[in-house]
Amino acid sequence: MTQDTGKWTGSTASWGVRRGASAALAALVLAGAGAAPVAYAADGHAAGHAGAQQQGRRGEVVSVVPVAEHSKAEIATELRDQHVGTDSLRHGVRAYRVTYRTVDPYGRPTTATGLLTLPEGGGRRLALVSDTHGTMADRDYAPSVAEGARAQSYLFASTGRAVAAPDYLGLGEGPGPHPYMDTRSSVTASVDMLRAARTAARGLGRTVTGDLYVTGFSQGGQVATALARAVQGGDAPGFRLKALAPVAGPYDLAGTEMPALTNGRVNDISGVFYTSYFLVAQNRLHPIYQDPAEVFRQPYAGRVERLFDGRHEDEDIIRQLAPNVRALLTDDFYRQLTHPTGGFREALRADDGTCDWKPDVPVRLYAGDDDTDVPIGNARTCARTLARRGARVRLLDMGAVDHNGSYRAALSRIARWFSGGAA
């Protein structure tokens, strides 16, 4: 669930965001943006307060640093080059890297980073869009760091809204490893980014009203769905969920995504990348293996954990792993993809179920028929589950497009829907 952040042309991994920032868009960053005054300085408190006191500081802003500025015309040129509609664009934008306090998967205090993008114009009071990204292994792919990961934030901000794009834990400039596909910590980091975005916007002379529109792509589509549930459930006081529009999310890991790894519905390269990343990251949270050789064949068992250290580019990881999932995994563990047991089953159960609730707002799910990263069956299962709960849900089939193509096709539609109030 990765996306090619520069060209949005599907290739290797696709539960997330990939390097390859378009030279055209990267060149638009003002040379002096990084030298602009910091809008919000660290408050000087020690980072190690524990327990309830630390919980109360979740979302507290540590710093805000300007990272980019673009005109409406510049954004339009780049989006057109990527075959993304531009009819909703209204303003230029300014973007900032926000560092904020949050908690790790065990509830311990940590920090994370994310991108806050504001329109130049559009009034002082702004609704907020949460945009959650897809899979990435290199922390430097994250929206607050990589220019090529920001185009969707620029699109939504140009319509006249603030945009909060969390990097998640362990990506961008956040410490530690990324707990890939851990739904709970992705949600806490995203909720706390909403709080931080509101504070940072206030320091920049804008007011975030609390009206919240939630979207995300691939891994981020799954995170967006879980985030919307958390907001509706009261986990982000002061924010009012208005609409949910995820794209190509892996909402059904056990029932759709894992079986698709064995029957050809997920392409080999993406399947190897996702499977390896998921097992390494989830093993830190669930007892899947004690030795990588219990799960991975050699020579991959001897290198796979090192490859997912947050410092390897996706393409480098792929070059050093097996050509397909069957060659990657031991015979015993390959069978677990369709008949999970133990810690692997626990991990799938913990990360599934994001569609098993009743949103009080309209939901639009976007997916493509030719997606061989996150097959459209994920969205169909999610739509059925939401509908059984009584949700107002529509599945919008983008047609014969691949994973990244579904995102290109959906982005401008989501922007128009949000701009129209998402009725």
Task: Give keywords.
423 residues; alpha/beta; Rossmann fold; 434 Repressor (Amino-terminal Domain); 2 domains; nine-stranded mixed beta sheet; 19% strand; disordered N terminus
Can you offer a commentary on this structure?
The protein has 423 residues and is of the alpha/beta class. The chain has two domains: 3-252 and 352-419, Rossmann fold (3-Layer(aba) Sandwich), CATH 3.40.50.1820; 254-350, 434 Repressor (Amino-terminal Domain) (Orthogonal Bundle). Helices cover 34% and strands 19% of the residues. It has 15 helices and eleven strands. The protein has helices at residues 23-26, 51-55, 72-81, 151-158, 183-203, 219-232, 253-260, 268-283, 304-307, 314-319, 325-328, 331-336, 342-351, 377-388, 403-419; strands spanning 3-4, 17-18, 61-70, 92-103, 109-120, 125-132, 162-166, 207-217, 240-247, 363-367, 393-397. It has a nine-stranded mixed sheet with strand order 3-4-5-7-6-8-9-10-11, with helices on both faces. Strands 1-2 form a two-stranded parallel ribbon. Strand 6 (125-132), helix 4 and strand 7 form a beta-alpha-beta unit. Helix 3 crosses helix 4 and helix 5 packs across helix 6 (219-232). The two termini are 28 Å apart.
